[in-house]
C-alpha cells in the first residue's frame, strides 16, 4: 500500500514570476523537514516550480534523498511563465482574489482557469506518481495549493474543484489500497507548527 503526502510549498516571495521562498517560507520548510524525520519516507517528488523545489530541498537533506522533479505536479500558472505570484497574506483586504478566498469562492481566484482540464492533469500526475512509486511505502509530493485542492476534490467526488485553501506546508495524505482505490487519510495537517509557530 502506497501513501502520498501531498505537501503544499512554503510561503514564497510575492510579486515575482516563479518566486523562491521568503524568509518565513524557508523557516517553514526547515520545520516540516524536521517533522518528517520522525516518519519513514521512502521518496520525494516535486513540482518544477522554484517554491516547491526550495521546500523540498531541506527534506532531501534531512532524509538523504534526492527528489525527482515531475513537470505535471506544477500549479496552473506555469502555463503562463510570466504570471506573477501574489501570496494572499500580501494582498490588500479588498483585493477581489483575497475576497474570493475569504468567502470560499475559490474558483473565482483564477476565473480564467479551465478547472476541468486542470483537475484532469492533477489526476494523471498523481496516478503517474502512484505507478512510479508503487513499491514504496510513503512518498512526499511537494506541490501546490490549487493542485492539492483539485486532486482531493476528484478523490472525494466534490462538485467544486477548488474547494479549500491549503496552508503553507500543510500535508494531505492519500493512500492507494491493494484494490486500487485511492482514499483520503487526512487534509491539511499542520501539527508541525503547533509547538513553535513560525512568525
What string gives the helices and strands in order?
Answer: EEHEHEEHHEHEE
Helical proportion? Answer: 25-40%
- Calculate Rg over CA atoms: 16 Å
CATH class: Alpha Beta
Q: In percent terms, what proportion of residues is strand?
A: 15-25%
Taking the alpha carbons of the first and last residues, their distance comes to 37 Å
Adjacency order of strands in the biggest sheet: 4-3-6-1-7-8
Q: How many structurally independent domains?
A: 1
Summarize the structure.
This protein has 199 residues and is of the alpha/beta class. The chain has a single domain (2-193), classed as Rossmann fold. It has helices spanning 23-36, 50-63, 96-102, 115-132, 145-156, and strands spanning 2-8, 16-17, 43-46, 68-69, 84-85, 138-143, 171-176, 182-189.
Top keywords for this entry?
two-stranded antiparallel sheet; 199 residues; Rossmann fold; single chain; 8 strands; alpha/beta; 5 helices
Question: How would you describe this protein?
Answer:
The protein has helices at 23-36, 50-63, 96-102, 115-132, 145-156; strands at residues 2-8, 16-17, 43-46, 68-69, 84-85, 138-143, 171-176, 182-189. With 199 residues, it is α/β, with parallel strands linked by helices. It has one domain (2-193): Rossmann fold (3-Layer(aba) Sandwich). The strands form two sheets. Strands 4-3-6-1-7-8 form a six-stranded mixed β-sheet. It has a two-stranded antiparallel ribbon with strand order 2-5. α1 (23-36) runs parallel beside α2 (50-63) and α4 (115-132) packs across α5 (145-156). The longest helix has 18 residues, at 115-132.
